[in-house]
Automatic annotation (TrEMBL):
Annotated NCBIfam families: PPR
Taxonomic classification: Eukaryota, Viridiplantae, Streptophyta, Embryophyta, Tracheophyta
Keyword DNA-binding among record annotations: no
Short name of one Pfam family: PPR_2
SUPFAM superfamilies per UniProt: TPR-like
Transmembrane segments: none
UniProt keyword terms in alphabetical order: Repeat, Transit peptide
UniProt family annotation: Belongs to the PPR family. P subfamily.
Name listed for the protein in its UniProt record: Pentatricopeptide repeat-containing protein
Chain positions of PPR repeats: 153-183, 194-228, 261-295, 296-330, 373-407, 408-442, 546-580
InterPro entries for the chain: PPR_P_subfamily (IPR050872), PPR_rpt (IPR002885), TPR-like_helical_dom_sf (IPR011990)
The keyword Hydrolase appears for this protein: no
């Protein structure tokens, strides 16, 4: 027996639990769920620890619906399993479902919520929308510890404090904060203000514009021996900048323990740029190098945008060159750059023949999975078209579509017109087709221009036929010359069936083609059978043709050994025609002779009679 095989005496419950635990090692939970369904009575067979392990795995994978269903079926869900599911629901903003689950759990006879449950609820509810009131949060904070006999910890107090601040109830947050400090001084409570507590309150003061109060609390924090961290410092710098209290920012910088980082400098530069102080922003930018603080994508984008808005494009371009040379955007860490922040420099490049450089910068932004921006794409597409690089412009159109962005008509038309200028008609047709699939409707002249280009280009007959059928479906006005040329091109490309089908659709939709011109061309190309078919089609549509055209088709059929087809056409012309001649006398003589040579004497006699009648009518008129 191999080492992985279960003992022969292993109980079914143990074997089932062991297999389930083994399946849960995989990221794919489907095999575990499938195995659960194969068990005859899984909730009585499997031990509680196995079911709880599955519940936690489902919650961690975000399978909240399956996890919730399992939770309601487990005889005794463990508190840590419940906490996992609760956190998963709240992360997805499903506050109502989380509340309902809590109610079910608390009604359970063996319910044992703990401090983690409370912390999860406070954090989840405070970030949900709509946020609960301060009264609701305080009620929850008191109810669970008192009912289930557990003590809140530092995380609990910090979570509640943060929740109150997010709810905008600074007064209640201050009371709680003061209570924590009294508790610290007068009892052995585990809840005491730490760096998170102080930073939360400092952020709340800054959010209300209370810069002096925030700085005063910072001084209390330091006096009480709590060391600020970089989040504390950056929170104050940002708050003071937003309040316009730059003198307080200087005071923060004077603190010996403060070591400004990239975030700090970016905040300062943002404040200077928002007030139009570009020179001050550039001083901060240069100071980063002096202090060996790394510049990230946000640093560059902020300054570049400000320089462009100040029309200092040369300096902005120098910074872009530095970004590309140092591959700043390719470096991980820091915030993900925003494409939109670079729009002013994209506009400058594309208006000044530097679309290639704009594309390099844009490509690095996309590689960082930056949030895509419609206006940036459009600027680059039109910029490349302006410089005649239509292939690159079209690649950007395709890139937009992959990212669920829809290029507008101006983008598509610029690319289509460009491809037509270059004679790349299949590419123009493909771009037009994508434009239609994007729900946009180009002008009738655009349809006609692309169709004309396809008809002039060798090897594009199928695409031209596809286009005219789309035009018919979308009720786009037809051009009789283009329609006639299309049918001719289809016959020349041996797409006869397609030619007949489209001709019928044109007439069914109230359009027509220049039939005499088409039939003459078919005869020139020795396609007399097709010419005869179109002659008959004209008869059915009451489209009168000249005697010369009838004669041309009849002569061609006769001279190419198609006497029977010629007679059939002649007979239809007689049956459906007027009392006037349907063909020239010489054509009737030729038909009569061809029928006699083919041994079609009965048909030849019929033609002879028609010839004599025609001669008689001529004599009567004279």
């Amino acid at each position: 027996m191999g080492s992985g095989a279960p003992p022969e005496s292993e109980p079914p419950a143990v074997a089932a639990a062991r297999k389930l635990h083994h399946l849960l090692r995989s990221r794919d939970l489907r095999p575990a769920l499938s195995y659960l369904r194969t068990l005859p009575s899984p909730f009585t067979l499997l031990p509680n620890h196995a079911l709880n392990a599955l519940l936690r795995a489902l919650a961690a994978a975000g399978r909240v619906r399956a996890a919730t269903s399992l939770f309601r079926s487990i005889p005794a869900p463990a508190s840590h399993s419940f906490n996992s599911l609760l956190a998963a629901l709240l992360r997805r903003g499903r506050r109502r479902a989380a509340s309902a689950l809590l109610a079910v759990f608390l009604r359970s006879r063996d319910a044992s919520p703990d401090v983690t449950t409370l912390n999860t609820l406070l954090h989840g509810f405070s970030t949900a929308s709509p946020r609960p009131s301060a009264a609701t949060l305080l009620k929850l904070f008191r109810f669970l510890p008192e009912t289930y006999a557990f003590a809140p910890d530092a995380i609990t107090y910090n979570s509640l404090l943060s929740a109150l601040c997010r709810a905008g109830d600074l007064a209640t947050a201050c009371k709680l904060f003061d209570g924590i400090r009294v508790s610290e001084e007068g009892s052995k409570s585990v809840a005491f203000p730490n760096v998170i507590t102080y930073t939360t309150m400092i952020r709340a003061y800054c959010a209300k514009g209370l810069a002096d109060e925030a700085l005063a609390l910072f001084k209390v924090m330091v006096a009480n021996g709590v060391s600020p961290n970089r989040i504390t410092y950056n929170t104050m710098v940002q708050g003071f900048c937003e309040a316009g209290r730059m003198e307080l920012v200087k005071e923060v910088f004077d603190v010996d323990s403060f070591k400004p980082d990239t975030c700090t400098f970016n905040t300062l530069m943002a404040a200077h740029c928002s007030e139009g102080r570009i020179e001050d922003a550039m001083k901060v930018f240069d100071q980063m190098t002096e202090l060996h603080v790394r510049r990230d994508s946000a640093t560059y984008s902020m300054v570049i945008r400000a320089l462009c808005e100040n029309r200092e494009f040369g300096q902005a371009e120098e910074l872009v060159d530095e970004i590309l040379e140092k591959e700043v955007l390719k470096k991980r860490g820091g915030s993900v750059p925003l494409v939109a922040a670079y729009n002013p420099v994209f506009v400058y490049f594309c208006e000044n023949g530097k679309a290639k450089k704009a594309r390099m910068l844009f490509g690095q932004l996309l590689d960082r999975r930056s949030k895509v921006d419609f206006h940036a794409f459009k600027t680059l597409i039109l910029g490349h078209c302006k410089e005649g690089n239509f292939e690159e412009a079209y690649e950007l159109v395709l890139s937009m579509l992959k990212r669920d962005l829809v290029p507008d008509s101006e983008c598509y038309i610029a690319v289509i017109d460009g491809f037509m200028q270059k004679g790349r008609m299949k590419s123009a047709w493909e771009a037009l087709h994508r434009m239609l699939n994007s729900g946009l409707r180009p002008s009738t002249s655009t349809f006609h221009s692309v169709l004309l280009g396809l008809l002039k280009k060798d090897g594009c007959a199928k695409e031209a036929a596809d286009l005219i059928e789309i035009m018919l479906e979308r009720k786009i006005r037809q051009n009789v010359d283009l329609s006639t040329n299309l049918i001719d091109v289809l016959f020349k490309s041996d797409l006869n069936d397609r030619a007949y089908k489209i001709t019928k659709r044109l007439y069914d939709n109230g359009y027509y083609i220049k039939m005499e011109k088409l039939i003459t061309t078919l005869c020139d190309d020795k396609k007399f059978i097709d010419a005869a078919e179109f002659t008959l089609f004209s008869l059915q549509k009451h489209h009168e043709l000249s005697v010369a055209v009838h004669s041309l088709v009849l002569d061609g059929l006769c001279m190419n050994g198609r006497a029977s087809e010629a007679f059939q056409l002649f007979y239809e012309l007689i049956e459906n025609g007027s009392t006037s001649a349907v063909a020239a006398p010489r054509s009737l003589v030729l038909l009569h002779h061809a029928l006699e040579e083919a041994g079609k004497m009965k048909e030849a006699d019929f033609v002879g009679k028609q010839m004599r009648r025609a001669t008689s009518r001529i004599r009567q008129r004279s």
